[in-house]
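Recall that a protein's primary structure is simply its ordered list of amino acids. Everything else, from secondary elements to tertiary packing, is in principle encoded there. The following example makes that idea concrete.
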Amino acid sequence: MAYPTLNKLTGYRLYCTLCWIILLFQPYSACGSPATKLFIDNGGYIVSDGSGLLRSREQDLFMPASTLKVLTSLVALEQLGDYRFETHFFLDDENNLYIKGYGDPFLTSEVILEIGEILAKQGVRQLTSIFLDDSSFALNGETASDENSKNPYDAPNGALAVNFNALPVQVGGDATISSGEPQTPLIALMREAGVKLSPGIHRINVDTLSQAGQLPSSLRYAGELFNVQFQQAGINIQKGYSRKLVPDGLKPTYIHQGAKTLEEIIRACLKNSNNYIANQLFLACGAYNYGFPATWEKSRKTFAEFTEKSLHLRSNQITVIEGSGLSRQNRVSPAALVAILELFKPYNALLNRKNNALLKSGTMAGVYCYAGYFPVNNTLIPFAILLNQAKNNRASVLEVLHAAVRQGSSPQIN
């Protein structure tokens, strides 16, 4: 929008001020205020300020995108408690090392090197083979995203996945291929992927790489990284790696517990809006309640039960297909999202602060959402803005609603 006599920022502020003046003095209807209607083609919102006025289509269902991560975080915090992700290591009589993953989202290059150093200190110096066991997840090829693009935010989930299933590759101007990050060594999978990439640093959804042999690319990534990092730690491996279940009765030699607490994992998930971490948490909740192997269906059942029993939400108010917001089949009403935020209040510090609000955004093509709290007079006022439309006007709607709250009569929310 152009302002002929004012700079852009000043003009925008005056425009928003005009909008909330209109908002305050015009009656509300089921379609919202005249001010917010200027910005909303298809969407709804609600502010739980006690007035009952700041709402429009609050019971209608919309795609929430990443604002759904607030619910995923809430369920994990409420149900998992003092939870640590684990990875188990087994040695058999032939000096083969079995690695069984249980969905640790922070199984990174640095962590794998640390594990190798721990095993070396325990006397593991020579291995015949490494066997990878990812059977604690049974996802049957289903992924959270409907797109499965090369972008790392579409990376698949798994029981034994490394570096968030995102492959860092750097291609030089002379076509030289190297690792895209210093902590991760160059592996064969990078060399293969880099041949098709333009110069620059890339992070690739490993699931989109062509699969050589019978191993999925994500498990091959894990195998190559464990192999290289363990050798860096002083462990010699004669025959490389392959996929194989841990034999019945074999006891773990070492159980690695993730260093991050559940709250630290969630803070990182919300700060960076990490889809992979969100769905590792989603799947962990289902496995916690219904046992391994983790499945999408167990987690959907867990979330449906939680939303019904703890939030008193019905199926016509919320549908959760996965925990990140990537699926376009997820549906949430603004009122349901505010109910989630009411229960999330003790954990509000995990959200980012932006535009004088505690905020979680949600963004996909044609989906632009905000959810969080307006801090007013030592009170947290929950709000939800869900826009499923071509224009990203969520910031304008947020400003109009925030201005209306600031001009209110110091509402007290229990």
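The domain at 8-79+275-406 is CATH 3.40.710.10 (Beta-lactamase). The mean pLDDT is 90.
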